[in-house]
Amino acid sequence: MIVTVTPNPSIDRTLALGAPLTRGAVHRVTSAISEPGGKGVNVARALMLAGLDVIAVLPASDDDPMLTALRTAGVSFECVPVSGVVRTNLAITESDGTTTKLNEPGAHLDAAALDALTQTVLSHAENASWVVLSGSLPPGVPDAWYADVVARLASAPCQVAVDTSERPLDALAAGFGTAAPDVIKPNAEELAGLVGASPEELERAAAQGDPGPVVAAANRLIERGAKTVLVTLGAAGAILVDPSGSWMAAPPPIAPRSTVGAGDSSLAGYVRAAVGGAEPPRRLQMAVAYGSAAAALPGSALPAPSQIDLNAVRAYAITPSSPVSTRP
């Protein structure tokens, strides 16, 4: 069993444009897609398509359209009842794959709902191989909630992955010394923020084939207690760093259609490979194959195994070749 946790789920609505987005202009939409979303839900959808036993845990009212969408998609879930309405996130995609996102804050979770969500996660973790905690936190949830849940899962038999950003990610990293998840999945901007580096420097180096700055930044998190750092780098691929080494993988050439859910798909690929007993390079290879396949699909569609071209991705061992500079 794999458990995904989405504290701030969403209905993801994607509008496709045939021309570049222009602020203040009137645009004709070429297609519109609505799908159940939120980062953990996306991970669950991808793993479900791969035939894995997965359940999505999320807060929503019993009659929320989100639950209807999950049933339609065939995703198993456990809902923690709340009074608010699941948010709708809007993504606008252009013909070259450029994606503009407009995300609502989400429904407020009071103390009782948050406690129920926490207890549901802990209960499912007792029978899980992985627990994946993903996404932003809705209003009412303390920034340190992910860090607190990871600490409480330390004695559980499962492995834990976390994919979040901004203040919840900062709070998680602050607790690495006492309780770190088995995997964190920052992008270049999020990694740079954690170590005081320049995201532009990390992205530029990776795009030029120099993984050194990213590896150096990730190793700083390893030194602080992180176990494994999976850094997604968009078109440059991804880098995986753990105490035993570091690896890089680049995606095959694709025609990008939408980046919505691509990072979630990468994490799903990593977990799928890990559940199968794969070594780190193979996990990274699967992560990049999944991420690139998702970017080639419309809206927030997630790839099925038949759409994964694992042989088109090569993962190779690397060592830092360039230092990472920090901001003053």
TrEMBL record:
The lineage of its organism: Bacteria, Bacillati, Actinomycetota, Actinomycetes, Mycobacteriales. CDD domains: FruK_PfkB_like. Residues 23-305 form the Carbohydrate kinase PfkB domain. PANTHER family: 1-PHOSPHOFRUCTOKINASE (PTHR46566:SF5), 1-PHOSPHOFRUCTOKINASE-RELATED (PTHR46566). Keywords: ATP-binding, Kinase, Nucleotide-binding, Transferase. NCBIfam families: 1-PFK. The keyword Chaperone does not apply. Belongs to the carbohydrate kinase PfkB family. PROSITE patterns: PFKB_KINASES_2. This is 1-phosphofructokinase family hexose kinase. GO terms for cellular component: cytosol.
